[in-house]
TrEMBL record:
Keywords: Membrane, Transmembrane, Transmembrane helix. This is Solute carrier family 33 member 1. It comes from Sus scrofa (Pig). It holds the Pfam family Acatn. Residues 1-12 have a biased composition (Basic and acidic residues). One of its GO terms (molecular function) is acetyl-CoA transmembrane transporter activity. The keyword Disulfide bond does not apply. The gene is SLC33A1. It comes from the Eukaryota. Coiled coil: none annotated. It is a multi-pass membrane protein. One of its GO terms (biological process) is acetyl-CoA transmembrane transport. Residues 1-42 are annotated as: Disordered. GO terms for cellular component: membrane. The chain crosses the membrane at residues 75-99, 111-134, 143-160, 260-278, 299-321, 409-428.
């Protein structure tokens, strides 16, 4: 029988319980740290413990908890990897502003918003990242290193083509389709890197410090997004640089998009080389707690996780919560890390993060697409004309009139979203609170023996 422990969370004492969980698809003896359901009488009852992940043996109890300072190097590495992850996100987020400055329509901007969807679809290839790897090189490094190398070379190549795609070299309109395809591949690589880093975070840090993974994710991605978006746009703006950074005005900013891409592509290559050579994965955790049978079994396990009532309810909630709420990111990341199991950490955590990302992306795409249809324009200067279609707009101009916005669709959507937000909170908010009190067994994937 496993030893019993007690855990205190928010000044509420949890009663000790037996702790044997099995999540291994292989037959035969269970690996250390696995979950077992040999004691059904304890499932969902007082036997559940806050320590959701892994088994605690006598050797583990004899080891003192590791402090944050003892794992500072790993925390800093995770932080920097998430900063690098935020750079592609920030750059992709800056493109719509550049397109808007070139008078690109909302419809084209909505089409470009598909660039951000790989982070919402990464669940489709997350089991592949979990199941296929080179043991000698490391489970997470097998994907992290080549992905970041490809990202680095891709950014360097893109630096030679991006001005042409934006129409900056020949004065033509931006090629929105080519930009969307290019940056979609860009974000696909960043999403793959995110899967590897999320899975590595669960085993790189000890169980006492795994909560810092969400902090690294939030702070790192935000910092990277700031560098790739706000800082880049400021340094790229000739007006900003001439007003605040220069003594003599010049017609262009300090940096260009091509310069920025080339610089960070080089940083990606250097950083990846250092990680590949200097950072070793935890071999003991790799063999004991993260062993999976193969790609097929990993996908089967993924669907088993999705069908669990607690996970399904949680996914449905966060799929809609971000329509009006964006301040829940850190708490959701911490909650995801708490209930995810390192045995299939990359896939489990990616499932929850993917649904969360999807809940933030689909409202953005739909909202941008609805701005034009909800906008009311009138033809001023020409009688019996309207501006409902592009042809009608052209006809209005030919007759000497001009289309004037009478009601902006942005404000219409703002009012609608306020009511949607209140409705979501009163109808689904109580379910979210109830999920916080669910026992660990609600998040366990029961395996057939």
């Amino acid at each position: 029988m496993s030893p019993t422990i007690s855990h205190k969370d928010n000044s509420r004492q949890r009663r000790p319980g037996t702790f044997n969980h099995s999540l291994d698809m292989k037959s035969g003896p269970l690996p250390p740290g696995s979950w077992d359901d040999d004691h059904p009488e304890l499932v969902g009852g007082e036997g559940d413990k806050e320590a959701l992940l892994g088994d605690i043996g006598a050797s583990d109890l004899s080891k003192p908890p590791r402090s944050c300072r003892a794992e500072l190097s790993s925390i800093l590495l995770l932080l920097f990897l998430y900063v690098l992850q935020g750079i592609p996100l920030g750059l992709a987020g800056s493109i719509p502003l550049i397109l808007q400055s070139k008078n690109v329509s909302y419809t084209d901007q909505a089409f470009f918003s598909f660039v951000f969807w790989p982070f919402s679809l990464k669940l489709l290839w997350a089991p592949l990242v979990d199941a296929v790897y080179f043991r000698n090189f490391g489970r997470r490094k097998s994907w992290l290193v080549p992905t970041q190398y490809i990202l680095g070379f891709f950014m360097i190549y893109l630096s030679t083509q991006v001005d042409h795609l934006l129409g900056s070299t020949d004065g033509r309109s931006p090629d929105v389709v080519a930009l969307t395809v290019t940056f979609f591949l860009f974000e696909f690589l960043a999403a793959t890197q995110d899967i590897a880093v999320d899975g590595w975070a669960l085993t790189m840090l000890s169980r006492e410090n795994v909560g810092y993974a969400s902090t690294c994710n939030s702070v790192g991605q935000t910092a990277g997004y700031f560098l790739g978006n706000v800082l880049f746009l400021a340094l790229e703006s000739a007006d900003f640089c001439n007003k605040y950074l220069r003594l003599q005005p010049r017609p262009r900013g300090i940096v260009t998009l091509s310069d920025f891409l080339f610089f960070w592509g080089t940083v990606f290559l250097i950083t990846t080389t250092l990680v590949a050579l200097l950072k070793k994965e935890n071999k003991e955790v790799l063999v004991g707690k993260e062993e999976t049978q193969g790609i097929t079994d990993t996908y089967k396990l993924l669907f088993s996780i999705i069908k669990m009532p607690a996970v399904l309810t949680f996914c449905l909630l966060i799929l809609t919560a971000k329509v009006t709420l964006y301040s829940m990111y850190v708490s959701i990341m911490a909650f995801n890390a708490k209930v995810s199991d390192p045995l299939i950490g990359g896939t489990y955590m990616t499932l929850l993060n993917t649904v969360s990302n999807l809940g933030g992306n689909w409202p953005s795409t739909v909202a941008l697409w609805l701005v034009d249809p909800l906008t009311v324009k009138e033809c001023v200067g020409a009688s019996n004309q309207n501006c409902r279609t592009p042809d009608a707009v052209e006809l209005c101009k030919k007759l000497g009139g001009s289309c004037v916005t009478a009601l902006d669709g942005y404000y219409v959507e703002s009012v609608i979203c306020v009511f949607i937000g209140f409705g979501w909170w009163f109808l689904l908010g109580p379910k979210l609170k109830k999920l916080q009190d669910e026992g660990p067994s609600s998040w366990k994937c029961k395996r057939s023996k």
